């Protein structure tokens, strides 16, 4: 009797390891992989050209990995999610598939697409099997004593850890090699405009980055805030497209701790991965966030800053060296250090009084790791409108942050070479004369005044 055929629909889970949809489909019979690139949808979601290029190459790497298991991957361009669903139905018929397997995505448009796909395919007589591969503990696994979703990170993290202790920590293995001869596979190419020297695409590259990072995990707590050194994993682009799973990351971390659970659960890097889980759960519980709503309905929205401030911020021409260096890092590499993301977000929102949503969209248009849940969570945290956001009076000073986290100006010098000759003291905020001489802009705001105004408006 011939084996049943199932389609695996890859989306932001571009890997063969620890991929529940792929693993369980392969247990049932023959697998055919499908990838659908919804071109217009990406535009409407502000996805960055560098992220699209990175995805393009990650899909190609995925095909190589799948082909080693004799699994074909057919990729197609479609316009939007509605067309994705139509195409999927057509392919399911064409391949005479029994079922379609996929891993859930949580932002609203994706969740609606998946509901529609499930409904349509089931109506046509196909089986639909859905899994959670982008999150470590399944959605809605934890809730407060009152049965409500968590809104504050620390108790969420405590509950997350308690739940995780009851779960297996091992990622899923690779599916077995199948008995299938691969013919022609449908393929396409789109832009490849990204820094592949920094982020070589694919699952193997992601695993290598993880291996490179783990020996440094012991210093993460001390080094993660210093932008001049490589103190963080830089795995975010891979996690965003699913070239590696969060579960794979933390299972390797536990191994690095030699299985010592006490040390593992106290690990600061684990905590950051739990922030990622927290923001995913937040968008699941609050679908309106995907419609650009603030999390806190009583948040003060006082964003009446001049657009010119936004324009200068977005070009890295604010006259505040740390902010400008950070924005140049984003424009040049498609990535920005977390400490700097917080600084530039608070600068734009609280000091320039520009709506955080403008910054959020700008980040998405430029980040290689653009991820709706984490980006929205980060922006709402900084603007004090979000779940467990910073208190309204927390406004990072771009000058003292620079002195504290880039004391010798190493990061600034690298990104703003015109300031290279300044002393370690002056580089954080050059004088009027120094700026004129070096061709560096004058500050676009008076920090003390702007801070005072923000506190008055937000209190
Ligand atoms: C305004 C703002 C916007 C952000 N936008 C994004 C975004 O679009 N995509 C994105 O992946 N992260 C975003 N972050 C979170 C964080 O800045 C990045 O995940 C981190 O800088 C990525 O670098 P890394 O991989 O070296 O992280 P590491 O420090 O090595 O952390 C490991 C992983 O944990 C997760 N993580 C770390 N910090 C956070 C956090 N604060 N929130 C959620 N997840 C976290 C990421 O997946 C990261 O790759 C944003 C933060 C802020 C303040």
From TrEMBL:
Cofactor comment text: Binds 1 FAD per subunit.
Source taxon at top rank: Bacteria
GO process annotations (BP): nucleobase-containing compound metabolic process; response to light stimulus; response to stress
Family: Belongs to the DNA photolyase family. Belongs to the DNA photolyase class-1 family.
Site positions for Electron transfer via tryptophanyl radical: 303, 356, 379
Keywords associated with the record: Chromophore, FAD, Flavoprotein, Lyase
Lineage of the organism: Bacteria, Pseudomonadati, Pseudomonadota, Gammaproteobacteria, Kangiellales
PROSITE patterns, per the entry: DNA_PHOTOLYASES_1_1, PHR_CRY_ALPHA_BETA
Chain sites annotated for binding FAD: 220, 232-236, 269, 272-279, 369-371
Cofactor (UniProt): (6R)-5,10-methylene-5,6,7,8-tetrahydrofolate; FAD
InterPro entries: Crypto/Photolyase_FAD-like_sf (IPR036134), Crypto/Photolyase_N_sf (IPR036155), Cryptochr/Photolyase_FAD-bd (IPR005101), Cryptochrome/DNA_photolyase_1 (IPR002081), DNA_photolyase_1_CS_C (IPR018394), DNA_photolyase_N (IPR006050), Rossmann-like_a/b/a_fold (IPR014729)
Name by which UniProt lists this protein: Deoxyribodipyrimidine photolyase
């Amino acid at each position: 009797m011939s084996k049943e055929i199932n389609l695996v629909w890859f989306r932001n889970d571009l890997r063969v390891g620890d991929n529940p949809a792929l693993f369980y489909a392969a247990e049932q019979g023959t697998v055919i992989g499908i990838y659908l690139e919804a071109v217009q949808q990406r535009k409407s979601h502000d996805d960055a050209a560098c992220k699209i290029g990175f995805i393009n190459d990650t899909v190609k790497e995925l095909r190589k990995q799948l082909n080693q298991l004799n699994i074909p991957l057919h990729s197609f361009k479609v316009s939007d999610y509605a067309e994705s669903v139509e195409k999927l139905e057509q392919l399911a018929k064409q391949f005479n598939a029994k079922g379609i397997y996929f891993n859930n995505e949580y932002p609203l448009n994706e969740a609606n697409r998946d509901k529609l796909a499930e409904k349509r395919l089931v109506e046509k007589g196909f089986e639909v099997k859905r899994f959670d591969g982008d999150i470590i503990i399944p959605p809605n696994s934890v809730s407060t004593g009152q049965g409500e979703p968590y809104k504050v990170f620390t108790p969420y993290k405590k509950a997350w850890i308690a739940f995780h202790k009851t779960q297996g920590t091992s990622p899923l293995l690779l599916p077995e090699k199948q008995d299938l001869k691969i013919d022609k596979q449908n393929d396409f190419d789109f832009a490849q405009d990204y820094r592949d020297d920094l982020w070589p695409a694919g699952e193997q590259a992601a695993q290598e980055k993880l291996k490179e990072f783990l020996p440094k995990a012991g210093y993460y707590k001390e080094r993660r805030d210093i932008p001049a050194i490589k103190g963080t994993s830089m795995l975010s682009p891979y996690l965003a497209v699913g070239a590696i799973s969060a579960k794979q990351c933390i299972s390797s971390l536990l191994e690095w701790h030699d299985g010592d659970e006490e040390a593992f659960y106290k690990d600061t890097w684990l905590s950051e991965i739990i922030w990622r889980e927290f923001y995913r759960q937040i968008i699941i519980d609050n679908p309106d966030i995907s419609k650009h709503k603030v999390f806190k309905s009583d948040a003060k929205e006082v964003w009446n800053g001049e657009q010119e401030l936004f324009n200068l911020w977005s070009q890295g021409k604010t006259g505040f060296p740390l902010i400008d260096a950070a924005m140049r890092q984003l424009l040049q590499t498609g990535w920005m250090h977390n400490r700097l993301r917080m600084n530039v977000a608070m600068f734009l929102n609280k000091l320039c009084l520009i709506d955080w949503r403008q910054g959020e969209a700008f980040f998405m248009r430029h980040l290689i790791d653009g991820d709706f849940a984490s980006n929205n969570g980060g922006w709402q945290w900084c603007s004090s409108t979000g779940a467990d956001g910073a208190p309204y009076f927390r406004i990072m000073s771009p000058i003292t942050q620079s002195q504290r986290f880039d004391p010798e100006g190493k990061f600034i010098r690298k990104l703003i070479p015109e300031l290279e000759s300044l002393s370690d003291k002056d580089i954080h905020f050059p004088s009027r004369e120094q700026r004129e001489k070096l061709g560096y802009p004058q500050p676009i705001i008076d920090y003390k005044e702007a801070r005072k105004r923000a506190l008055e408006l937000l209190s």
